[in-house]
Every structure is written in C-alpha cells, then in structure tokens.
Amino acid sequence: MATDSTGLGDRDSAALSRRSFFGAAAAGVGLAVGAPAFLAACGGGSAAQGGANSGDLSAVLPKYAAGSGGPAPDLPSVTGKATASTDPGFLTYPTDLVKTVPAVPGAGGSYKAITPIWGPLPKPGNSYYQAVNRALGASLTMAPADGNSYAQTVPTLVAGNKLPDWIQIPTWWNANINVGGLAVNRFADLTDHLAGDKIGKYPHLAAIPTGGWQAGAWQNRLYGIPSFTSQANFSAALFYRQDLLAAKGIRPDSVTSADSLLALGKELTSATANVWAFDVLWLSIQQMFKVPPLSTIVSVRDGKAVSGFDSPELEAALAFAYKLAKSGYVHPEALAGNDADGKQRFYSGKVVITSDGTGAWNAQDALAGLAANPKYRRGAFTVFSADGSQPSIALANSATIVSYLNKKLSPAQIDECLAIANYLAAPYGSAEYTLINYGVEGEHWTMEKAGPTRTTQGTKDANQNTYQFLASYRNVVTNPGYDSVTQDAHAWAADAVQHAYKPAFWNLNVNTPAQFSSISTGTQVNDVIKQVTYGKKTVAEFKAAAATWKTSGGQRLVDWYQKEVVDKYGTGQ
Amino acid sequence: MSGGPTARNRRHRLRQDRTLLLMTVPAIALVIAFNYLPMFGAVTAFQYYDYITGFLASPAAGWGNFHQLFADPTFWQALRNTLVLSLVQLVLYFPVPIALALMLNSVLDSRIRSFVQAITYLPHFFGWVIVVALFQQILGGAGVLNHFLRGQGLTPWDIMTDPGTFKYLVAAQAVWKEAGWGIIVFLAAIAAIDTTLYEAAAVDGAGSWRRLWHITLPGMRSVIVLLLVLRLGNALSIGFEQFFIQRFAVGSGSAEVLDTYAYMYGIVANNYGLGAAAGLFKGVVSLLLILAANKLAHALGEDGLYRGTR
Predict the structure, then answer these.
(1) Is residue A28 scored above 50 in pLDDT?
(2) Three-class DSSP category at B123
(3) Which pLDDT belongs to residue A292?
(4) I need a labelling partner for A432 at 20 to 30 A (CA). Which of A204, A367, A420, B154 fits?
(5) According to the model, what pLDDT value does residue B210 have?
(6) Which of helix, strand or coil describes residue B170?
(7) Using the beta-carbon criterion (under 8 Å), do B270 and A178 form an inter-chain contact?
(8) How far B293 CA sits from the closest chain A CA (Å)?
(9) How far does the CA of residue B244 sit from the closest CA of chain A (Å)?
(10) pLDDT above 70 covers what percent of chain B?
C-alpha cells in the first residue's frame, strides 16, 4: 500500500512487510528506501501554510568536521558523479577499542525513546540496555514499536498526547505522517544547539555528513538527528543468486537491458521444478527505466513542476512491470502479495533474481542464506538501463532515519540528549561504537579473528537497531566474518556512484500545506501502481487513477510546488 | 418511604437481581469503553481532521468528507464488493454450521462426536494470516496442488489469484475457519429440545427425517433466525484482515471492502475525516439493516434481537 509517498512503499506494503528495510535495519547498514525527504517548511509554525526551505540552510545546518578516532577503512570511499561517494568498507575490526568520548555524556536524566523495529522485541530492561544506560549516565528507556504499523502508531501517540521524549521517524513516511507539521508543532528546535560552530561541543555529531542533517531540517530550522547517513543511498539494487547463475554458466554482465533481463527470466524459470526467475522487481524496474523518483509525487521537467505520475518513464516502467507479472517468470506467491516470505524464496533458490534495498547485503543475510544453501552468495547486477543506453541511477536522500526530540524538553535536557546522541554517533570500531552495536565483551560478544562475534545472549538482546536509530556514525559497510559481502556491496556501489544523479528536490524537505495533506501522499495512485506491478490492474487503469488524482487536487499541488518551491529555489540543488 | 408502588417494585427487582446485574458490569464497562466512547470520534467525519492539532482545532468540513466519499468510484466499488461478498457468504457459509450440527447430533458415539467437534473447532483459533498462508501453500500458484498438476502436465489452477472467483475462495476460507466454531450455538439449541418429543414422535411412527423436520429444525428456529438477523446487520462488517491480506493477490477490484477502504484511504492516506465518514456511513447503514432484519424476524413470528409487539 502506498504507505509512503515514495512509490516504493508500494512494494513493501505497510502492514505486512517492509522487507527491503528489514535487511537494512538488521544490519544497521544503509537504508535502502529512497525517499527524498522534503525539507518542508510550514509558514510560521502553522502547518496550514506550508513552504519549502529557503534553499540556503548554511545558517541552520551544523558545520561538518571530519571525525577522528576511528580506524582507516580497508575499502575507502569511492567518489562518483553528483557528489555521490560510497560508504567506507571495513574488512577488519580493531582489537584495540579506543575510547572517543572522554566524559560520561548523561547527567542522570530519565528519557523514553520510541523507534521502529522490524523483528522480535528485545526484552525490556535487558542486560544490554542496562549496560548502555550505565555508560550513558542516564536512563534512556528504549520502547521499540512494530515497524510494520509504525506509520499508524505515531499519529496515535500524537493524538493521545503521548509522544515520548525522543522518537525516530523514517523519512519515507514524511508525507503520510506529516512530519513537517509535527516538527514545527511538537518537536524541539535544535538549531540553537547545533547550528554552525555550535556543534563543536558534539564532535561525533559534527562528523555526520551535512546531507544527513538536511533530512532533519524543516522550515529553515533544524529538528532532526540523522542515523546511517550515506552519500550513496540508492533506493534498491537488482540482486541475483551469484552461486545459482554461476552453476548455470550465466554471466551477470550479459544482462544489459530490459529485454535481456526478460530473456534471462525465461531461461531461469522452471515451474515444474518450483523455480521462478523473479520476485516482484518494481523498485529496480523504476531505476532501469530512469523513472523520476515518486517519493515527492511532484517532479520537475524542463524547469517546470509536473506530476510525477505523468512521466513517460513511469508509464514505460509500469508497462514492463505488468508484462513481467504476466510473463510467468515471477514467483506466484510474490504475485499473490506475499512479501513476507520474499527473502525465504531467495534463500531457498525458488527465486533467482529479486529487487531489494541495498541494505539487504549484510552479514545476517549471508548467515540466513548459507543456512539454506552452503553455496549461497548474493550478487547484484551493475546498474543498466532498460533500453541498453547509458545508465543512470537516482540518489536517494542522504538519511532516511531521523530522530526528533520532544518540544517539552528543557534546554538542559536537550543538551543532555544531544550529548547522548554524540556518544551514540561514535566512530566505527571505537569502544562506544562497539558497546552500542554489540554490547559488553564476554557477555554479549567475544572477539574472534573476524571481529566481535555475538554470544547467544548478545544475539537475543543486542542484535537489533534500537539506540542506533536515535543517532549513529555515518553509514559504513562492515560484516565481520563475511568479507565477500562487504567487498561485493562496496564494488557494486563504487560502480553505481559513477552513474548517480540528484533527482529534483533531492535532500530538500518540503512541507505541503494542510489542504494537501492527503493528496500529497498519492495513496490512491500508488495503490494502483502497486497493483499494476502485480499484474492486477492495467496501465490504462493507472493512467485513469493518475488523471483522477490530478483533477481531485493533484494539479493544485503541482501548481503550489511551482510557485512555492521551483520558482523560488529551483529543484533545490 | 417515599415513592409509589412502581418505584418500590423497581427497587425490589433491583435488589432481587443484584447479583445478576453485578455480573453484567464488566461487559457493560467494556461496551462503554470500546463501543460507546469511541463514537465521539465520529465527529471527525465532519472535519478536515488534523491529528497534530486534534479534533478541537481541526477545521470543520460540514458534509465535505461525505461529498468526497460519494464522488469516489472506489468507495462504491468497495461497497459493492462488501455486499456481494456478504451475500455469497450468507448463502454458502450460513447453512454449513447448521448442517454440521445436525450431522454431529446424529452421531451417537460421544467420543467420535467430541473428536470431530475438536477438529472442526481448531481453525477458529488460527489468525487469518495463517489461514491464508495455508490456503496459499496448498492451492497457491507454487502450492502443493499446482505443483502436482504441473508434474502431470496439466494446466495449473490459479484460484488464489483469480479476481472472478475470489468471493467463493473467501467463503471457502470462512467455512474452513469458522464453521466448526459456529456449530456450538446450534448444538446447544438442539440439546435444549425436550427429548420426550422425539420419543413421542417415534412412538407415533415418525422416521428420523420426519423427526428432524418436525422437531429438531423447529426447535432450532429461533436461534437460526437470531443469528440470521445478526448476520444481516453485520453485512457490511465482513472483516478486515482476510481481505487486506489478499488484496494484492486479486487486486482491489474484487477484494476492497469498506473496512480496507477506510484504512487505505483514510488512515494510510492521512485523510482521517474521509475514513471516519466511510465508517460512519457503514455504521448508519448497518443500523438500518439490523432494524430491517429484526422486523423481518418479527414478521416470521420470532423474537429477533428484542421482543417485538405482535
């Protein structure tokens, strides 16, 4: 369901699964879902007005200062086009865990934090939470909430006046939850604590690349703290089973266009053997067809704001997705909307090619895949375009995980929370990073040759992103024990950044006025889009829905963008 | 003591039924907390509700949400689907527990009877996710049946993703999941029938079919009519999960019902006013349906939900 305005969400339908994300979340690696967040701005505190950031946020954003204290990466960042650069990769874990935060950050305060979780809930008050809180010098009670229904949980918390002190809201729900309105009305304005040189008090926060902070800026003020900031976020990669293709002697670089992909589908599908070539590939099909990201619904063409649903690229992509759904090469359960078992289908080899967030490439994935098949290895096709021409791939926003503090906190409490955030953002391989990500040595992990390896207790309590969702070091690629995963992911990204481009409104939050609160989610059209990719509705039905969207307020939204965003700031670049 | 005879009478009855009344308190509290209090939320149907500012500060919409609702073809589609699915379930599902109860009743061995009963009950305790997954595993495109068909060189049967036959599929799922549970009430009704009636009929030479027709069924009639009335009143509340889970398998064209519509286009789309309007519409129509069904019950000479004036 088109939970997010991203059009991505269509695939990981709200209620039942968000598996693209799950992989990422599990690993704490780059979040895949690309939702150009809209730095929206509502005029003067009233969500009814709306508006965009002025384009120049230099007075509001923290000053970047590259951090120190972390080890040098084994696979350094590769810089590509459009300022994209890959996340550093690490094949080794330092054995000497350096302390990078000299003082205890907390002042004994008590706070409650809510973050989404995709997986089993850790036990409240477990030994990992206790250890981290001891180190923080504060009682930060984590209350993770089910990620699948998170977009419904947040409005309930707000309406019931039960917002916690600290809350994380993924940017792909910015439109559905109206995060811009929330920021201005309910969240603490951090500008005076962090803008410019003020961030110097928090050196680890200062080391977060500026793009991440942009995801937390609304109405020319800074509200959010980003996690897993990456300068090479892409909404998806087209994955394949390296081991299965190799066994058949198929070279992945033979896939250079939509047609060759379809031909490969025919070759790989053997329904009698219970093997289908594809899962639903919508995320990657959009990239192949160079569809302007649907995350903002409104796009820009030749300097004019246009409905993103009107793009010829989208129509072509949908036509192909529909053709694929009807081809017989897509696993029937995928077409029956069973997203939850997508990974399982891939692990068991019932599906050979799947589209997922880039975060799916991680150690947990390798572990699960190898359990199903000892030869399991995930690969991804290098970026290609549908017609075989020069490929391009849209950058997603630099941060998709952003946390906010409650407006009710006093300035002193905000300072304490920011000091805690600074601790949480300690660099890879530091003592603090290790505690946050793995827990206590001996209790939750032991140092093996490959790096920290979780004990049973650690797997139970310290295996999921909780604190990391409030603030974290910039995204890194690290999979102790699974070097090939790190190498594969890094190599793919090093190629992808060479084709990167910034889509319209990239890293720019736009808060649409209240009158557009529903139309800006594009739910009805996104719903039809998803159904087309499942072969349940036709492209003609999509076009009808897109036309209805335009006449029932969509065109007014486009006009508003033209006047309030494009005319004033261009595409925000 | 003040108060006339009526008041005294009432007080007397209160005292007499005190225990019984106390026993209803938890149920009444539940109904108030979860059914009556939330009704105030219906005010959002007449607002452009903004969850950030709350319903006190949200701008009034008058009938705006209803105009939008009634102008939306997908809403009418959802309403049509709901009615069709309800009707199909009424015809295909409703008689099943009755038939099952009659059959079970004719089984004399009590061990076999409770065994069969236990097995048919069990699916009631499964969530819809599990039920749909089971159907998918057996009947789905990659399921056991189709795997077998393909192995035999036959065309696979795509019942799980066919929008045209979806209504029968969900009725089948409902029968599998709920029919066993549904027989409890009917078995109780049968048990309440005076056994001497059967003996007398048998003495008079009535065979088992005649006894079924003239004693058992008339004895169950009031329960059947009561459940039918409830069923009709709930015609628009056909369920949420079962359809939501399978929505993308067959498409919203056949799987969208009023509840999934309200969720998708109300809650997910951040358009709470529209969702509330859809919910309120459903509530009002359901009330009318239940009153109509009750009237029908009275016309048939039964009590229905409450005793009518005959």
Answers:
(1) no
(2) helix
(3) 92
(4) A367
(5) 86
(6) helix
(7) yes
(8) 35
(9) 9
(10) 97
